Amino acid sequence: LARRPAAEVVAALTALAEKVSGCRECKLCTTRNLTVFASGDSQARLMLVGEGPGAEEDKQGLPFVGAAGELLNKILAAIGLARDEVYVANIVKCRPPGNRDPEPDEVVACRGFLERQIDLVQPRVLVVLGRIAAHTLLGNDTPISKMRGKWYEIRGLPAMVTFHPAALLRNPALKRSV
Ligand code: URA
Fold it and tell me: Which of 33, 34, 59, 64, when mutated, tests ligand 1's pocket best, judged by the most ligand atoms within 8 Å of its CB?
């Protein structure tokens, strides 16, 4: 896919975010506070994909603004990147109650939005954070420990899988490999 002019990409993403904000395609719309579309630079060379909003994200309407987000910021800083230089989105745009895993029907209802985000942003590299995002985007059931650190292809783009920052908070020994 050829990348569209920046202004067109911004306009298309703005329209898509608007659509997401009123989405009622799955039951998560009944418990959410705010939808969480994305953050960062839509011209970024690096796009990160997480799982879905937690409590703080649901409050602020922004991805990775809780504890996992703070760690993510440090990980990016360690490779010389500021958070606003990368584009960040999630598999599901609404918080699953109690931070449970998103259910298959919710993932199916939401995945078109993420696919459109990927196709519009056209990053040089996608980084897939954690098991849920990896299984959704790669359509497999492989343990994350087997997938991490390897290159895959998602929508024609090079994609690397790694552990989710929340997993690193639970198990700091995994930090080095990320
Ligand atoms: N915050 C997000 O936006 N996504 C996650 O996967 C975790 C925390």
Answer: 64
Q: Which atom of ligand 1 is nearest to the CA of 88?
A: 3
Torsion from C-alpha of 138, 119, 105, 66, nearest 10 degrees: 90
- What's the distance, Cα to Cα, between the start and end of the chain in Å? 29
CB 56 within 8 A of CB 17: no
Per-residue model confidence as pLDDT tens digits over 105-116:
999 999 999 999
C-beta separation of 39 from 83 below 8 A: yes
Q: What distance in Å separates the CA atoms of residue 111 and residue 115, rounded to the nearest whole number?
A: 6
Q: What is the DSSP letter of 96?
A: P
In this predicted model, what pLDDT tens digit does every residue of 74-93 receive, in sequence order? 999 999 999 999 999 999 99
From ligand 1's centre to the CA of 8, what distance in Å? 27
**Given the CA of residue 50, which atom of ligand 1 is nearest to it?**
6
| Predicted TM-score (pTM) above 0.85 | yes
